[in-house]
Amino acid sequence: MSDAPQYPVTDAVLEALAITRRGVEELLPEAEWTKKLARSAATGVPLRIKLGLDPTAPDIHVGHTVVLNKMRQLQDLGHQVIFLIGDFTSLIGDPSGRNATRPPLTKEQIQANAETYYAQAKLVLDPARTEIRYNSEWSEPLGAVGMIQLAAKYTVARMMERDDFTKRFAAGTPISVHEFLYPLMQGYDSVALKSDLELGGTDQKFNLLMGRHLQQEYGQEPQCILTMPLLEGLDGVEKMSKSKNNYIGITEPANSMFAKILSISDVQMWKWYELLSFKSMAEIAALKAEVAGGRNPKDAKVMLAKEITARFHSAAAADAAEQDFINRAKGGIPDDIPTVALTGAPLGIAQVLKAAGLVSSTSEGLRMIEQGGVRRSGEVLADKGLKLDAGEHVLQVGKRKFARVALS
């Protein structure tokens, strides 16, 4: 950008830079991004901001929305967001963070996942200011000749600098040639879209830098890259993930979402505020100061839980979830518990708990009774040999699992 006209870095540009930098891991190169922001402010031409997602799973959790929140902040500054669905790159399979070749998905799986994924992403992004693209648009027409020409623009030595390839090579773990094509194709997306900024998780840095390299190879102004930290899950240790069962799905019920957010630690709460809240950093700093001055941190956590629950449901649902949580804390029984019809009375309590979906096995049910974690109509059950007669029984396991069992 050295030959480009110099545009003034106004207060508005500095404010946009501060919003861009909020919660980010890296913004590279920051000086180039500042120049792009200044040019956009002076000319009124929005910047093109790209997020590429391989729809390898249909559902997204709160951890995935960290990067979507950043996209929304940039949309609110007036820039053009491109939600790129990697239907072509999904057929290759992203080797990032893998210690083995990942099996590619079928076109049908990709299409189904992509539709669900975007329907959920719209809960964060402004659909009116979001361009949806599929990278098969330009990747399939490349053909064999185009693919070979593209591969000629990068060396094997540079490709092997990538951390996961280095480790796998050293360990003697197979690396298929097609895996080298993935970062090349992701980088080529930036060329096709004339991207000004590409976002991704910290594990995507190599692929994002590939986009910069290829844009220069094709004579374009290179994109800047922005990486967001990976959000730790409910345990506060591992990154949020379904496989670790420490996640909050953005389509799960409001009551469950609210209660899970309240379960995070007081320390972890502030990182969630920075990455997930739409409050300004000044508002968050003021709230943090109030807590440091003696305000109950639970107040701040309730505010966060209500904000996030309202985003994915509604303000009324968030209020109802708060009331439900209060009722449960007092030992009350929520209104919206599922009803399960069972036959074969009298039935052993552990068997009923399993059949009602409150525990995964009868042995877990017996263990929960032993630990005092099972209630019937609010009363703790201590008898592992208890058999329930015909009739209606309101059962509770732990703090959040309830079922109304109609036994006959």
Structural description of this entry:
- This protein has 408 residues and is an alpha/beta fold.
- It folds into 3 domains: 11-228, Rossmann fold (3-Layer(aba) Sandwich), CATH 3.40.50; 254-329, Tyrosyl-Transfer RNA Synthetase (Orthogonal Bundle), CATH 1.10.240; 339-407, RNA-binding S4 domain (Structural Genomics Hypothetical 15.5 Kd Protein In mrcA-pckA Intergenic Region, Chain A, Roll).
- 47% of the residues lie in helices and 14% in strands.
- The protein has helices spanning 11-21, 30-43, 65-76, 89-92, 107-121, 136-151, 156-159, 163-171, 178-193, 205-217, 254-262, 266-276, 281-292, 297-312, 315-329, 349-355, 362-370; strands spanning 26-28, 48-53, 80-85, 130-134, 197-201, 224-228, 339-342, 347-348, 374-376, 379-380, 387-388, 391-397, 401-407.
- The strands form 3 sheets. A 6-stranded mixed beta sheet has the order 1-6-5-2-3-4, with helices on both faces. It has a 5-stranded mixed beta sheet with strand order 7-13-12-9-10. Strands 8-11 form a two-stranded antiparallel sheet.
- β2, α3 and β3 form a beta-alpha-beta unit.
- α9 (178-193) packs across α10 (205-217) and α12 (266-276) runs parallel beside α14 (297-312).
- The model has no long low-confidence stretch (mean pLDDT 89).
Widest sheet, order of strands: 1-6-5-2-3-4
- Low-pLDDT runs of 5+ residues are none
> What fraction of residues sit in β-strands?
5-15%
Helix percent band: 40-55%
**Coarse morphology:** globular
Distance between the termini: 76 Å
Summarize the main sheet: 6 strands, mixed
CATH class of the largest domain: Alpha Beta
> Domains counted in the coordinates: how many?
3
Name of the CATH superfamily of the largest domain: HUPs
pLDDT average, as an integer?
89
Count of helical stretches:
17
CATH A-level architecture of the largest domain: 3-Layer(aba) Sandwich
